[in-house]
């Protein structure tokens, strides 16, 4: 028997709709913790890593809502993310108490920006942020890291953040990133995937093995925050 169910949904966004997928545990009726995930500058919500993580989360008792937003403007992405946030909060079927926001690459920049906005409006809104392959800078352009990390650095002290990045990520210099993390007020944990690229693939390792390792890191960290 499947451990989770998945429904495709349309999230209202201005005069349009965003394609989304709601993944939830099959046997648990009282789901209290939810996660919103979105993709990077390319692809969509069906990017294999997001699907794998969503299914792992739902199998572990969490609700996961992932969505597609093709816009490459960060401000537009954040507005879309906010629409998905409002949609999730309006769901009558579940009694959601805690919401995590996250994504991969540009998607996690949008998540951090939304969390910063929401934390300025009220104290207890976002339970934590999941950053998969945070894009600290374009390849070879490390000088842009301060602008790219502005929202992470602007998060409040009580905000838990998990960053999962590959040691070979050409868009996230490890020394720069670890230096930036030391300056952040928020509670940041970083998991470095050995040999991992920006796409969190590792040469010589089966993709599913890498996905399982990343998913386990995320779920273990989330369980700790939501306890």
TrEMBL record:
InterPro entries: AB_hydrolase_fold, KANL3/Tex30_Abhydrolase, NSL3/Tex30
Lineage of the organism: Eukaryota, Metazoa, Chordata, Craniata, Vertebrata
Protein name: Testis-expressed protein 30 isoform X1
Domain KANL3/Tex30 alpha/beta hydrolase-like, first and last residues per copy: 32-212
UniProt superkingdom: Eukaryota
Pfam families: Abhydrolase_11 (PF20408)
Naturally occurring in which organism (per UniProt): Cottoperca gobio (Frogmouth)
């Amino acid at each position: 028997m499947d451990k989770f169910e998945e429904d495709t949904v349309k999230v209202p966004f201005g005069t349009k709709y965003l394609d989304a997928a709601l993944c939830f545990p099959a046997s648990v009726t009282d789901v209290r913790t939810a996660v919103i995930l979105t993709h990077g500058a390319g692809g969509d919500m069906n990017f294999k890593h997001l699907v794998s993580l969503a299914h792992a989360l739902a199998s572990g008792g969490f609700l996961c809502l992932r969505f597609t937003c093709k816009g490459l403007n960060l401000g537009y992405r954040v507005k879309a993310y906010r629409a998905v946030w409002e949609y999730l909060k309006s769901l009558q079927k579940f009694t959601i108490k805690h919401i995590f926001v996250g994504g991969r690459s540009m998607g996690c920049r949008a998540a951090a920006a939304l969390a910063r906005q929401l934390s300025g409006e009220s104290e207890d809104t976002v339970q934590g942020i999941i950053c998969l392959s945070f894009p600290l800078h374009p390849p070879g352009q490390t000088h842009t890291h301060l602008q790219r990390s502005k929202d992470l650095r602007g998060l409040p002290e009580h905000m838990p953040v998990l960053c999962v990045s590959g040691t070979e990520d050409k868009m996230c210099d490890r020394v720069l990133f670890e230096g930036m993390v030391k300056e952040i007020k928020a509670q940041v944990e970083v998991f470095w995937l050995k040999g991992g690229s920006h796409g969190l693939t590792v040469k010589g390792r089966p993709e599913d093995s890498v996905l399982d390792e990343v998913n386990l890191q995320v779920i273990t960290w989330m369980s700790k925050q939501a306890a």
